[in-house]
């Protein structure tokens, strides 16, 4: 047995009248614990190995396509060409699903970081990759990533992949195809933006409601569930403000417990759906949702008919 290709990173999960599809952009494999802002590497290793995970971690990059009515909403849009050969798969997977870039009506960004927003624009030509989409993003993201004073404080790499690339990606949409919000608000019917600042200044979760079902797409609230649910205080070097990110993480995790929310996460292991339960002494537990077989409720996909039924 030589090489193989994994099955396509596409997974459907109905949510009331919505169809939520995880589209996996790829993954990052880290060779260091220095991605965490925590010097206690023995603790980090313990959390991962106790859950039989790879240590240092391998992290999935997911986007979520939400289809309902006449809308095709992408929550984050993949990394384009900036994250190397293990990433950048969203355009190919959308194509495989028969969804043209022109059919995407909205892109809701959890924040402007290359693994989430670098699929918006062709960096060479400056052309929109989703020509008919409105981009929804927190106003504080624009303020921060366009701030030359903030940029001057950044490392050379951060200047290039966060500030420069971020500006290149969002600029074509800002003129006439952007919805900038600055507080909790409904951005589209059934989709509410819930700011959760810290990881970045305008980091935002999106709450989806349809029928009796509620789901939160929590962006980068958690990068490595085994570690950050075990100790929600552990930050990442990618955080703009680590203490504030931890505060938002605790608040969102508690909300997920209190409201029994279905969670979709950009960095939860594919296919990226889970619920959160209370753990021991301030910890939380991560319960991956079981695979959704397409006939679980007998009405998805739409053309599905019970075996033997002829009409
Ligand atoms: Zn991320």
Automatic annotation (TrEMBL):
Task: Give the Pfam families listed for this entry.
Answer: Lactamase_B
Tell whether Coiled coil is among the UniProt keywords: no
Q: Does the keyword Cytoplasm apply?
A: no
What InterPro entries does this protein's entry cite? Answer: MBL_superfamily_lactonases, Metallo-B-lactamas, RibonucZ/Hydroxyglut_hydro
GO MF assignments: hydrolase activity; metal ion binding
Keywords on this record? Hydrolase, Metal-binding, Zinc
Which residues are in the Metallo-beta-lactamase domain?
A: 60-266
Q: Which PANTHER family match?
A: QUORUM-QUENCHING LACTONASE YTNP-RELATED, QUORUM-QUENCHING LACTONASE YTNP-RELATED-RELATED
Query: Which protein family is it in?
Result: Belongs to the metallo-beta-lactamase superfamily.
The protein, known as: MBL fold metallo-hydrolase
């Amino acid at each position: 047995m030589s090489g193989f290709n994994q099955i396509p990173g596409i997974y459907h999960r109905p949510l009331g009248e919505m169809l939520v599809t995880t589209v996996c952009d790829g993954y990052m494999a880290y060779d260091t614990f220095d991605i965490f802002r925590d010097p206690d590497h023995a603790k980090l290793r313990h959390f991962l190995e106790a859950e039989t995970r790879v240590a240092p971690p391998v992290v999935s990059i997911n986007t979520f396509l939400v289809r309902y009515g006449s809308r095709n909403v992408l929550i984050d849009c993949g990394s384009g060409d900036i994250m190397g050969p293990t990433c950048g798969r969203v355009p190919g997977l959308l194509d495989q699903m028969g969804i043209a870039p022109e059919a995407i009506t909205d892109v809701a960004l959890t924040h402007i970081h290359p693994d989430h927003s670098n699929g918006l624009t062709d960096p060479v030509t400056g052309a929109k990759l989703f020509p008919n989409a409105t981009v929804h993003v927190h106003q504080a993201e624009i303020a921060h990533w366009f701030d030359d004073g903030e940029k001057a404080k950044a490392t050379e790499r951060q200047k290039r992949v966060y500030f420069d690339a971020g500006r290149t990606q969002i600029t074509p949409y800002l003129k006439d195809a952007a919805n900038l919000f600055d507080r909790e608000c409904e951005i589209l019917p059934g989709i509410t933006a819930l700011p959760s600042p810290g990881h970045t200044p305008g980091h935002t979760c999106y709450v989806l409601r349809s029928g009796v079902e509620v789901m939160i797409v929590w962006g980068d609230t958690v990068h490595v569930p085994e570690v950050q649910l075990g100790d929600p205080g552990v930050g990442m070097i990618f955080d703009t403000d680590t203490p504030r990110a931890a505060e938002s993480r605790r608040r969102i995790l508690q909300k997920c417990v209190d409201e029994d929310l279905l969670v979709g996460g950009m960095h939860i292991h594919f296919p990226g759906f889970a619920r959160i339960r209370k753990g021991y002494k301030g910890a939380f537990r991560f319960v991956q949702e079981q695979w959704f077989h397409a006939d679980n409720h007998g009405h998805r996909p739409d053309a599905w008919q019970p075996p033997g039924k002829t009409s």
